[in-house]
Amino acid sequence: MKAILHSGDFPVQNRKIIIGGSKSESNRLLILKSLFLNIRIKSLSESDDTRVLEKSLKTLKGTVNIHHAGTAMRFLTAYYASMEGAEITLKGSQRMHERPIGILVEALRNLGADIEYLENEGFPPLKITGKKLTVDEVTIPADVSSQYISALMLIAPKLPNGLKIYLDGDTVSEAYIQMTLSLLRRIGVKASLNNNQITISPVEKVEEVEIAVESDWSSASYFYSLVALSENLKITLSHFSKDSLQGDSFLPEIYKVFGVQTDFNTAENSINLYKQEVILPNRVTLDLSNTPDLAQTIAVTCFGMGIACNLTGLQTLKIKETDRLSALKKELSKLGAVITIDDNSLQLERSSGILPNPSIETYEDHRMAMAFAPLAVKTDLIIEDAQVVSKSYPEFWKDLKMTGINCDLKDLSK
């Protein structure tokens, strides 16, 4: 399916959009709910990744295919390894079998887990035989993926002796580790992070609790970009709060530099976005170590506004749904961008204009599709493989239309 996008009239009246629940919160809570039955979840994400994880948690024997769901692969590897009696072959898409998981598997093996590689060493698919894991200490590199660490943290309270996790090296995406800590504490688990040491106490059962999932800040980023690129668009997004657990809730601070003002409406649990006149910088420099999922959106915003940028802390992007740095370079270059990348950074020079009518490849990556879509404010464009957004935001194209973008979805299978 292709999305053919044309800029609309963008009337000044406010557009109200309800974004679905956070995928990151939902997936963590699903693992915890499977371990502690007294947890109830409200406003669960409707993303493909969350649906796949929810379905997979009902299986303890046989083959589980998580397709493109990277979080599910990491979390389920730890979950099944700790479930006595589980006998699982865990596999995914071809790209998933190219995404490393050796760091997590080694850590779990050090805890006593029984995990075998079925094809290539260090990569899925995996054969997992669940065991009682009694070792209570493990060291894991912290500079590759926070999901490996969160996977261990989520099973820790159900281990008979709890778990101490020693983080080796500089921690990437620490905000997601803090999210996991906060959710553990919310259900009554003693959990702390001090001096690169995470300590989680064992818990037999937790008190009954209902947790409402906040809307997804990563998904909100595309509307921040849209407001930044427009002249007078106003958007209200629900349900967001200042006390968010999500690292991407730093968006309001980041987008101030682009002239996007965020007003929090506490009574209605929403945010109002609108454009303010500001002096735009020639170049923006940001360390996105804690918010790497925003890199594509910010790079596209900068390009569309004619602002240069230096983005660092992007080392995790090479092992995502695609090599996001290479994909960004290729697709932005189609539009006339001058861009250079290395293993953990991106440098974009100021653009003098946008080459017309580009066709943007998405590389089976939902964020490529959604990050480029706001450029429709500046030029007509085509987004290839548009249905890929269902991975995290199934209603994206419908919500984009509500902002005034003309969006024509063409089903190429017919």
Topology:
Blueprint: E1 2-6, E2 15-18, H1 23-35, E3 39-42, H2 48-56, E4 61-65, H3 70-82, E5 87-91, H4 102-110, E6 114-117, E7 126-129, E8 137-141, H5 146-155, E9 163-168, H6 174-186, E10 191-194, E11 197-200, E12 209-212, H7 217-229, E13 235-238, H8 251-256, E14 260-265, E15 270-275, E16 283-287, H9 295-305, E17 308-312, H10 324-334, E18 339-341, E19 345-348, E20 359-360, H11 366-372, E21 381-383, H12 396-402, E22 406-410
Parallel strand pairs: 2-13, 3-12, 4-5, 8-9, 16-17, 20-21
Antiparallel strand pairs: 1-21, 1-22, 5-7, 6-7, 9-11, 10-11, 13-15, 14-15, 17-19, 18-19
Helix pairs in contact: 1-2, 1-3, 1-6, 2-3, 3-5, 5-6, 7-9, 9-10, 9-11
GO molecular function, one term: 3-phosphoshikimate 1-carboxyvinyltransferase activity
Catalytic activity: 3-phosphoshikimate + phosphoenolpyruvate = 5-O-(1-carboxyvinyl)-3-phosphoshikimate + phosphate
Family: Belongs to the EPSP synthase family.
How does this structure look, described?
The chain is α/β, with parallel strands linked by helices and 414 residues long. It has 2 domains: 2-21 and 215-410, UDP-n-acetylglucosamine1-carboxyvinyl-transferase, Chain (Alpha-beta prism), CATH 3.65.10; 23-212, UDP-n-acetylglucosamine1-carboxyvinyl-transferase, Chain, CATH 3.65.10.10. Helix content is 29%, strand content 23%. The protein has 12 helices and 22 strands. The chain has helices at 23-35, 48-56, 70-82, 102-110, 146-155, 174-186, 217-229, 251-256, 295-305, 324-334, 366-372, 396-402; strands spanning 2-6, 15-18, 39-42, 61-65, 87-91, 114-117, 126-129, 137-141, 163-168, 191-194, 197-200, 209-212, 235-238, 260-265, 270-275, 283-287, 308-312, 339-341, 345-348, 359-360, 381-383, 406-410. The strands form 6 sheets. Strands 20-21-1-22 form a 4-stranded mixed β-sheet, with helices on one face. The longest helix is centred in the first third of the chain and has 13 residues, at 23-35. Residues 65-400 form the Enolpyruvate transferase domain. One of its GO terms (biological process) is amino acid biosynthetic process. Belongs to the EPSP synthase family.
